[in-house]
Design goal:
binds nicotinamide-adenine-dinucleotide; disordered N terminus; single chain; alpha/beta; 21% strand; seven-stranded mixed β-sheet
Amino acid sequence: MSQSLRFANDCIASFHMSIDGKIVETEEYHDVLNPASGEITGRAAIGTVSHLDKAVDAAEKAFQRWRDVSDEERSQACRDIAAAIDEHKEELAELLTREQGKPLKGLGAEFEVGGCIAWANATADLSIRVKVLQDDAQARVEQHRAPIGVVGSITPWNWPLLIAIWHLAPAIRAGNATIIKPSPYTPLSTLRLVEIVREVVPNGLINCVTGDGEIGDAMARHPGIQKIVFTGSAPTGRKVMAAASDRLKHLTLELGGNDAGIVLPDADPQKIAEGVFWGAFINGGQTCAALKRLYVHDNIYVEMCGALTALANSIPVGNGLDPKNALGPLQNQRQLDIVSTLVEDAKANGARLLCGGAPTGQGFFYPTTLVCDIDNNARLVREEQFGPALPIIRYTDVNEAVCLANALDFGLAASVWTNDLDAATAIAAQLEVGTVYVNKHGEVLPHVPFGGVKQSGLGVEFAEEGLAAYSTIKVVNVAK
Ligand code: NAD
């Protein structure tokens, strides 16, 4: 059955799972709400462990054939996926705005769908070369890469389509079959994505099963799944790791972050304000590698606060379907409560609001919030807010700022803002993170490996290193 989106009030679309190349209707569906309005965006199928078992069977069968197809065929499949998404990009972007809340324009839903197309094509261009380790009178020893088997992908609600493609494209490019489980907060766009792309790949190669943590846990334990790629919070990541340990599953864990930005005294606040702002507030701060605490040198603290406040006051926040809005609501009530609690705690402990600071209106809206004169031990600094509230901390000694940046368990990314590239390079060497940005924050690129250290994750995605994570090393050692 082909799914067409109808947003008329009297007809709410249902979104179904895809298993073995077929659309699977279920008995139970749950409403998914538009976070900007509280209206129902669509109804998502509720999957069960029995659906998961069927998806694993289908993926195992697909894998038996897919593991032996040529590299060109796998590369073409990624291109076909990109083309299929391209054909449906308007529909997917609108659905994404209606379920996730991000604006259609700017760094929002159209940008995310464009990223899916770019990443699927870039993954088609990747390859893992056979390495000749020895070739002499005694032997020829080659290092090959073999696919792992069935890969289970578990995704969060902040960038649901892009993260789905980040998992699925390299998995099938390396010769695996896949099952994706989206977050119950944002399942619709992924269900629709898989419904679209299943048509251009062999049956069973990409399956989508819905459900909450119970289904995610069943995936992590399932004997028919050989690798889990998980993007989500650190506490859930630890549970996934524990559940996957019984079968010694391969794991890639992309977890939370609490990225520090350090503004050195020579930086020009007016010049860097826009980069700092979008580094922090992209997707309303609901981004793993967003800038989540800003350390600013005392000499330019007031000017930096002023430049950011002016910018914050000029960026429209509202329903993402209105093209004038550059920022949308938080995706769900739970996240709204977390952000409100952390800002209230900061206020109660003497921090000062430069703008924002309380939920507004209908939907899960929270205004762009800047908090200054805040203690480094405040919860808003130490905990991942994952929302539009940035603490700005004053420092006087750059070594102290580096220590504070490194003091937390997180280690996804960090940034240094300065005109002195030697100073930036020296600080970069000291920061305990997977990526250090200089004069920017949060950029991800398909040809650059990305991943966290400490409690921010295990392994990397993207580039050859990310692709290699969907394979095992296989050595062929030929005697001469
Ligand atoms: P979450 O950990 O609550 O949920 C993520 C996914 O895990 C969902 O699909 C959920 O249903 C599933 N899940 C829940 N319990 C499970 C269990 N016991 N076993 C298996 N799966 C289970 O995260 P979230 O709230 O959806 O996303 C926000 C978090 O994700 C933030 O911490 C953010 O920083 C992080 N994140 C990280 C990256 C990255 O690349 N590092 C990217 C995006 C988001």
